[in-house]
Write a structure and sequence with these properties.
9 helices, about 70% helix, globular, 2 strands, mainly alpha, about 180 residues, two-stranded antiparallel sheet
Length: about 180
Amino acid sequence: ISGFADAPRHLVVLFPDRSRTYPTNSLETLLHHEIAHILFSRAARGRAVPRWFNEGLALAAERPVGLEDRSRLAGTLSKHGRISLKVLESLFQDGPAANQRAYTLSSALVRDLLRTYGDTSSGRILARLGQDQPFDLAFEAITGEPLASAENRFWKRQMTWTLWLPLLTGPSFLWGVITLLALY
């Protein structure tokens, strides 16, 4: 880990030597990320927030999505395909590679949710959590849609990557391009 937030104590701990590893790329973005966790915990009044949502939201708060994020998402989708939120949640404890995959997917999923339901939806969901409403119910109350439906829609949007990326990077396509160039 490159840092962590202890929300109940309002404490952020950073390890500067590790701040350049994915998903953060600088000490500044790492600080933004960890402070975001403290603020989310305050908004939820200390109630449990699913890790995929918490981490994805912190990544969205720390910086805009970049080329590295998009590349990692494309690679993750083409190699691993669709996974459930339950599996996504467990990836955070399955070692460094799985952890990075969890950050990549959480970031993409939460950014998709923010685009779909608006930037204020996350704060309203956290506020509902703070009123002792379970995450699934808070999500549905704010978005008007069950979490499972939003998850399915996200994965359908990602099918573009999982269908086209292997095709465009496969040997058949590359040899076809080479053949067309040779004929030209």
